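Lab notebook, page 48
Experiment: co-folding of the full assembly
Goal: obtain a model of how the components sit together before planning crosslinking
Operator: M.T.
Materials (sequences as entered):
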Amino acid sequence: MMDRQPRSNAGMLSYMNEHTVLIIGESIFAETLAATLGQCHRVIVQASAPTLDAALDHLAQQIPDVVVIASANEVGVDAAGRLLLACPDLAIIHAGLDMDNVQVITSHSIGRRMADLIAAIEQLPIRSDT
Amino acid sequence: MPLAQILLVDDHELFRQGLAGLIDGQPDLQVVGQAGDGLDALAQACAKRPDLIIMDIKMPICDGLEATRLIREEWPEARIVMLTVHDDEEKLFEAIKAGATGYILKNVKSADFLSGIRSALAGDAVLPPKLATRLLAEFARLASRPRPLTEDEENLTAREEEVLALIAEGATDKEIALQLSLSIHTVKTHVRNILAKLHVASRRQAARWALSRS
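Observation: model returned without errors.
Model output:
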């Protein structure tokens, strides 16, 4: 796994406006995506993890703003479940070479009261196709 | 030294953009065009004549296999390497039939990808080892299959078929003459005709041909 060095204090101001990203995948897709995002001023590629297990090891040490699963069939969307178990509020983006769209998976925790549950349900959009 | 010019064809823009960055970062390679479907690829290939076309298979409007066929029709010397997630031999065989000169899987690492396209630029065929094995197995299977009958072979007369069947059993001309109530001279004529129609040089080869057919 490749990790970036922590930022110096001088860069802290701009750091506040940048999203840290962990990329999961070991194909040329993940490699080139990391390189492309690394050139973007508003994104810091914190690390690239070739496998889900390597990503979970990384998350135990450092939690990024976003995890990007860049998959050429080696990591599936089912990885999201294990990632969310490790970090419940993690934002995950799943980009697969065999997918027509990129999927953004966000989650947040709520209290375990019935009122919290109902409020959470009510905040979610109502599907128009059901 | 001039940079090798590459046309990238893939409808997955995230992937294509990343590949373009990787290729353009190489001292000997340059992306001269990008296309998101087969028809755009055809137009750019004919206009730009790149040294190598890297082609996805699954694309909208016109897929990579069809685009490869169309490009090779217009420009038979085009070098096209398929870059795909498909590792099944059916797609590989279709790509080869369409005129692809190489096949790289998208789950490769960037070093292997770059090495593959440099090999393709050097004129080598590029294949993942697993698929190369399957391709050789298929070739062996086809080679061991009896070849289809030629028009002449199909034109063996009923009498010649009878003579050939006896040749396959190891019968001599005399034995064939006795069994079929023919003169030796007639049998020899039939044998000559059979050898000519089967394009073989001897009775033994004719016998082998008959056995392989059966």
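Interpretation: DSSP finds eleven helices and five strands in chain B.
Next step: discuss with group before ordering constructs.
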